[in-house]
């Protein structure tokens, strides 16, 4: 098992007298910037005016907001929390010119460093602090006096203090309250991409859709199919999240538990596992990264088409109707 680091392993004093420039104020940016500020650290937010609404939001939250270039100029630590596909361009145009000796370049995901889209100069630290949670949870847990687990990694240690700076930053956003794991840019990037593709996002959505379609094709009401294949997912996942597979299996009926063992391996077959290995190989050899970057350079033809198609699907139509009956499901999400 890897070592886990806590509050006592990190020293906020490493960041005293330093200015932290948080680039972006989206899911991660709004959470990390506010947590750092509440930890008594000197934070500025770097944004582009008029892209969306982040600038106004950050100002309304009492942040000091400026352009990315200005924030890069002022910041000793530069945390890049822009969309992954935009980071390389913004870095080249607005950050690199101000990345002077001894500064720290930071990320919450290793994509652009690992796949060589950003190549920092040798005379800066390059580190990662990655909360293992969506941004709104990073903020919510912090305000409740807790924190979400996080990862730290050091790609380049010019000052000899890169790791201590990363730990201090992790403490500033609340991650050491829960626990921090040390990893590498490569391991974080590859496991993160694999998890979201094969299991968390790609795997789950296709599993839900396949179950829903099977019931609807067989003539059952879409509303029933929605409840069984989508709505109840959260109830089951909450149990797994709280107490592992065992608690979930303890909590459901014996009938459900028996069906779980009997049928699960018929759904996720050896063929599926083999395909997971292929997916992992395409992450490892850069095939996925190349396709994602090309997609973005050609103005997202695939994303635009598939988003529309998926939005207009029956499961989304029925879902909107059913969720309207449960107003308590609505929570603030960035
Ligand atoms: P979001 O898309 O939520 O936010 C991006 C932010 O960047 C917005 O504030 C946006 O402003 C701003 N922005 C967009 N384009 C520009 C530009 N050209 N110049 C300046 N600012 C710009 O990103 P996430 O928080 O989801 O992701 C940030 C990083 O964190 C990524 O590396 C991601 O992989 C990583 N990460 C994300 C997690 C998550 O929970 N979402 C979890 C762990 C890591 P505007 O709104 O005005 O467009
Ligand atoms: Mg990810
Ligand atoms: Mg049932």
From TrEMBL:
Q: Which reaction does it catalyse?
A: (2R,3R)-2,3-dihydroxy-3-methylpentanoate + NADP(+) = (S)-2-ethyl-2-hydroxy-3-oxobutanoate + NADPH + H(+); (2R)-2,3-dihydroxy-3-methylbutanoate + NADP(+) = (2S)-2-acetolactate + NADPH + H(+)
- Which residues take part in binding substrate? 253
Q: Which residues bind Mg(2+) 2?
A: 192, 228, 232
Which positions are annotated as binding Mg(2+) 1? 192, 196
Its pathway, per UniProt, is: Amino-acid biosynthesis; L-isoleucine biosynthesis; L-isoleucine from 2-oxobutanoate: step 2/4; Amino-acid biosynthesis; L-valine biosynthesis; L-valine from pyruvate: step 2/4
Indicate which residues the UniProt annotation says bind NADP(+). 25-28, 54, 135
Return the Gene3D superfamilies for the record.
Answer: 6.10.240.10, NAD(P)-binding Rossmann-like Domain (3.40.50.720)
For activity, the cofactor(s) needed are: Mg(2+)
GO MF annotation: an example: NADP binding
Its GO CC terms? cytosol
UniProt-listed Enzyme Commission number(s): 1.1.1.86
**Alphabetical GO biological process terms:** isoleucine biosynthetic process; L-valine biosynthetic process
The cofactor note reads:
Binds 2 magnesium ions per subunit.
Q: Which family does it belong to?
A: Belongs to the ketol-acid reductoisomerase family.
Its function, per the record, reads: Involved in the biosynthesis of branched-chain amino acids (BCAA). Catalyzes an alkyl-migration followed by a ketol-acid reduction of (S)-2-acetolactate (S2AL) to yield (R)-2,3-dihydroxy-isovalerate. In the isomerase reaction, S2AL is rearranged via a Mg-dependent methyl migration to produce 3-hydroxy-3-methyl-2-ketobutyrate (HMKB). In the reductase reaction, this 2-ketoacid undergoes a metal-dependent reduction by NADPH to yield (R)-2,3-dihydroxy-isovalerate.
Q: What is this protein called?
A: Ketol-acid reductoisomerase (NADP(+))
Which organism's genome codes for this protein?
Sporotomaculum syntrophicum
């Amino acid at each position: 098992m890897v070592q886990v680091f806590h509050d006592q392993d990190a020293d906020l004093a490493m960041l005293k007298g330093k200015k932290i420039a948080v680039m972006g104020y989206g899911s991660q940016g709004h959470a990390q910037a506010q947590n750092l500020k509440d930890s008594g650290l000197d934070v500025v937010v770097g944004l582009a005016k008029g892209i969306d609404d982040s600038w106004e939001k950050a100002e309304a939250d009492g942040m000091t907001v400026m352009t990315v270039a200005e924030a890069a100029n002022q910041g000793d630590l530069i945390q890049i929390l822009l969309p992954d596909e935009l980071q390389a361009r913004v870095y080249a145009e607005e950050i690199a010119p101000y990345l002077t000796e001894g500064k720290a370049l930071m990320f919450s995901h290793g994509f652009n460093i690992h796949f060589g889209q950003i190549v920092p100069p040798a005379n800066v630290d390059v580190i990662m602090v990655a909360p293992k949670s969506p941004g709104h949870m990073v903020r919510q847990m912090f305000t409740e006096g807790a924190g979400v687990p996080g990862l730290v990694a050091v790609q380049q240690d010019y000052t000899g203090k890169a790791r201590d700076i990363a730990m201090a930053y992790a403490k500033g956003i609340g991650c050491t309250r829960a626990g921090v794991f040390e990893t590498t840019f490569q391991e974080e990037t590859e496991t993160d991409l694999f998890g979201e593709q094969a299991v968390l996002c790609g795997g789950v959505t296709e599993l839900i859709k396949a179950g829903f379609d099977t019931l609807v094709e067989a003539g059952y009401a879409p509303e029933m199919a929605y409840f069984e294949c989508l709505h109840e997912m959260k109830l089951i996942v909450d149990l797994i999240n709280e107490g592992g597979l065992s608690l979930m299996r303890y909590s459901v009926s014996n009938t459900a538990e028996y069906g779980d063992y009997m049928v699960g391996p018929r759904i996720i077959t050896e063929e599926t596992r083999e395909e997971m290995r292929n997916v992992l190989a395409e992450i490892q050899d850069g095939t996925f990264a190349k396709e994602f970057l090309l997609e973005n350079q050609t103005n997202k033809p695939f994303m635009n088409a598939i988003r529309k198609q998926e939005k207009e699907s029956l499961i989304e139509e029925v879902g909107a109707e059913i969720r309207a009956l449960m107003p308590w499901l609505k929570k603030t999400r960035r």
